[in-house]
Amino acid sequence: MKQFNFHEATSVKEAVKASSKKSAYLSGGQTLIPSLKLRLASFDDIINVKNIKDLQGIKVSAKTVRVGAASKHADVAASKEIQKAIPSLSSLAGRIGDAQVRNKGTLGGSIANNDPSACYPSACLALNATIHTSDRKIEASKFFKGMFETALKKDELVTAVEFNIPESSCYVKIPNPASRYAMVGVYIAKHKSELICAVTGAKPVVYRCKEIEKELNNSFSADALNNLSLDHSEINSDIHASAEYRASLVISAAQKAVMNCK
């Protein structure tokens, strides 16, 4: 691990001011610290933001659930308010990694890193989330750009994520048995104005599966997807699953999500 300057920020303004051309924000550190230790990344400045009060807390209103960026996965999973408002979001958080990861990893860190197999990006997309930053508000549909790539500027800090409360929803993940990352994860959400099927783990970046959405808009039932075959030409293929198999897992996960939507 190379040397760096460590900054303990007490406010969002202080954190942004401490940023440099080659800096990184630290909260849970589930990706950043291993990357530093393995020398996959190096920075001149590391800015600790996990103790900033403005990045903490969960607020539920009639239409939205707002989660502070430094909220841990375990906080989201244990929140009675979220369990009542969006039970699928609480369930998603409760199945990320293992207990150690859930008690260190944060929502803001997860979406800022934008791992192609992370769970939270699918929740952001399916629940029409708004990502609040130190500088602006970004719609989830415009936030996730590509593999490990987001719309965030260099010194921009995620401060909170505001999820719209759907009429019903469900997230189904088929995890890698070792890492617990999603080989495929499908988040189905029914809103008053639309139905969204967000998929993670299947492509380089989270996406909406229009083919599944079309079939479910015609008939919201698992059987509606029985004869659907997805184009797997752009689906990820690796030692864990071929592209063709992953495409079939997307449909299977979507069917389970439909059956358990509530």
What key phrases describe this protein's structure?
262 residues, alpha+beta, Uridine Diphospho-n-acetylenolpyruvylglucosamine Reductase, domain 2, Uridine Diphospho-n-acetylenolpyruvylglucosamine Reductase, domain 3, Enolase-like, domain 1, four-stranded antiparallel beta sheet, 31% helix
Which helices and strands, and how do they pair?
Layout (H helix, E strand, L loop, with lengths): L4 E4 L3 H7 L4 E4 L5 H6 L7 E4 L9 E3 L3 E5 L4 H6 L1 H6 L1 H7 L5 H4 L4 H7 L6 H7 L3 E4 L3 E3 H4 E3 L2 E2 L7 E7 L3 E8 L6 E9 L4 E6 L6 E2 L1 H9 L24 H17 L3
Parallel strand pairs: 1-3, 2-3
Antiparallel strand pairs: 4-5, 5-10, 6-7, 6-10, 8-9, 11-12, 12-13, 13-14
Give an account of the 3D structure.
The chain is α+β, with helices and mostly antiparallel strands. The protein folds into three domains: 5-48, 2-Layer Sandwich (Uridine Diphospho-n-acetylenolpyruvylglucosamine Reductase, domain 2); 55-164, Uridine Diphospho-n-acetylenolpyruvylglucosamine Reductase, domain 3, CATH 3.30.465; 168-259, CO dehydrogenase flavoprotein, C-terminal domain (Enolase-like, domain 1). The protein contains eleven helices and 14 strands. It starts with a strand and ends with a helix.
